[in-house]
Specification:
The protein is α+β, with helices and mostly antiparallel strands. The chain contains five helices and five strands; from the N terminus they run H-H-H-E-E-E-H-E-E-H. Strands 1, 2, 3, 4 and 5 form a five-stranded antiparallel beta sheet that branches.
Amino acid sequence: MIFELQVGRLRERWERLSPRERTLLTAMGATFVVMVTIVTGFFITDGLSTLEENNGAARDALHELETHRDSYLKAKAKAEQLKARMGKTPVQLQGFLEQVAKEAGVQIPESNELPPQAAGKQFTERSVEIRVKQVTIESLAKFLRGIETGPNLVVVTGLNVRTRDDKHEELDVEMTVTTYERVAEKKDKGDKKGDKS
């Protein structure tokens, strides 16, 4: 009933207006509707354009992921293989080298263990410098192959080979052999306090 009264009042006011005022008021109302439609259309178009750009970027990212998937999987498999070769317990490097040298028929008269160094946040690098004298190239090749193809991650990081002055078929070799081990994880302070009590 209130709604009918308000509509009735509006109709009376409309009828009291002159034809010129009615035309002007109709033009203003139409202009307002057109402006609201244009502004709403602009926001909708802008939103759709942004959404389309985001979808295009997501498609490009998915395409890049698919393109590089194989190389990522290969690198991940290689990293896992290296972690498996690294093992849980550290390699006793000098003992390992003595064993490989014995199998290759090589003598290690001099060795010098270098101080451990950090290799990133998770690993420690341990190295030994060794000197091998009067070795044939076949024995050296067997020794190097034994070092790098063993069950643990051990690599030759430095190699200096010289022929002997008196016997050219024999070599004097200086090399640096390196292995890596995981840094022991630190326990939380709460665990340490719990251990003391």
